[in-house]
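Good day; I would like, with your permission, to put a structural problem before you. A protein sequence and the structure tokens that stand for its backbone fold form the material at issue. The record follows directly beneath this note:
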Amino acid sequence: MSHELKVAVIEDAKEPVWNISGDDGSQDIYDGSGYLSPYESMMEDNSLPGHGVHGTKKTLGVSTRGHNSALFKWAAYPITNEKMRNSMNGKFSLLKLYKKMHDRKWDEDIDITKSFLGTSQSLPSHMVNKNMYVSDGLDYYQIEGLWKLKEANTYELELVKVGFNGDIKLDKDSNRLTTTKLVQIRSIYDLWEALGGVNSMSLIDGEL
């Protein structure tokens, strides 16, 4: 099976730089580096012997044609939620870049709650194997499940309200505070956004 990695090459942006010598000339921002889909990076991580290299990697390769050849090397930075949040109000939005990479709509009605063999796989327990959390800026929620509806590429997402330590919150009658919403999932970007997007959270050392 062959695998093709598409790379978009653009002229590097330039920004003023100031240093101890007083220079204020333009400096290439990325200077031989680029941003990579986090999923591409994860697949590379899992394919490397010993799985000892993670995250940013130096890509090294050779391109050969009939009358020429070239050696290329560049640093590949996987896009992360943190990087997207930090760049949202900047000159270059990594969220827009991430969306352009992954918001390629599929035409068929694909049920992501079933495996390639047709067996059911619930979200998040079977597919992610851990609890998933999201914040709306005011409150925290745990993603309880995602269920396919009859409408094409339409799902019901269930959330339960939790505290900053991940404990499920209850009302005065000891009922869980749950909410549901309908989501359309027709691309990897849609799925990522439905499961929290840049506002997804992890429980680390007892805190979100």
